[in-house]
Amino acid sequence: MTSHRLAPSLAVALVLLAGATVVGCAPEASTSEPSPTAEQTSTSPTPSSPTPAPAPTTDSPEPPETPPAFTESELVQICIDVTTSVYDPGVVFDASGARIEKRTVTPEWLVLVPAQTNGYDGESVCTIGGSPTDPDIEMSSGSIQPLPEEQIQKLIRGENEGGE
User: Fold this and answer.
1) 105: CB partners within 8 A, 6+ apart
2) How far apart are CA 112 and CA 31, in angstroms?
3) Coil, strand or helix: which one is 14?
4) Listed residue (143, 138, 152, 134) closest to 116, CA to CA
5) Residues 6+ apart with CB under 8 A from 27
6) Under 8 Å CB-to-CB from 39, ≥6 apart: which residues?
7) Is 152:112 a contact under the CB 8 Å cutoff?
8) Sign of the CA dihedral 46, 50, 52, 53?
9) In whole angstroms, what is the distance from residue 69 CA to residue 37 CA?
10) What pLDDT does 111 receive?
11) Strand 134-143 relative to strand 99-102: parallel, antiparallel, unpaired?
12) What pLDDT score was predicted for residue 65?
């Protein structure tokens, strides 16, 4: 008869012990990543415990790489190379003063490079896309006057590229 009364007491003690263990493993409020609990690691959930949502995996392969991007110096040098011939032989470009803008259309880059020629402050203007190994130059021009900001903004949006 003693063992018959001992079994329910032992079961209650085990439940209390298991409850104390679960409470002791609960994550603290300041922890940024939750610690797994016994309910989360169980492979057979009980009807009273919710099934945890699967965690997003970060082991998926990376998306295919896009072609290598241009560096600022590559964009500037490409613009200088394609516009040098429109100036007199003594032209001096100011690569450090170049302005590069991401366009909303393709080709995706607008490059403006200040130039000095025959005492004038000029500017080379190019739209460049493609890749560093195969650049696509849609527009290239040299002028003895820098473009006004309004015209630069139009070029960024792909408007008025033909001088209209």
Assistant:
1) 157, 158
2) 50
3) helix
4) 143
5) 34, 35
6) 22, 45, 46, 49, 52
7) yes
8) positive
9) 46
10) 98
11) unpaired
12) 52
Please write the tens of the pLDDT for every residue from 3-56: 444 444 434 443 444 444 444 444 444 444 444 444 444 454 544 555 555 555
**Is 72:54 a contact under the CB 8 Å cutoff?**
no
- For residues 59 and 49, what is the distance between their CA atoms, to the nearest angstrom? 28
Do the bridges between strand 120-131 and strand 109-117 make them parallel or antiparallel, or are there none, so unpaired?
antiparallel
Q: Which residue in the block uniquely carries the two structure tokens 């429109």?
A: 86
pLDDT (tens digit per residue) in 43-77: 545 445 555 555 555 555 555 555 569 999 999 99
3-state secondary structure of 164: coil
Q: With H, G, I as helix, E, B as strand and everything else as coil, classify residue 149.
A: helix
Q: Which two tokens stand for residue 34?
A: 């939750």
Under a CB-based contact definition with an 8 Å cutoff, are residues 105 and 158 in contact?
yes
113-125-162 Cα angle (round to 5)? 170
Q: Is the pLDDT of residue 102 over 90?
A: yes
CA–CA separation, 110 vs 157, rounded Å? 10
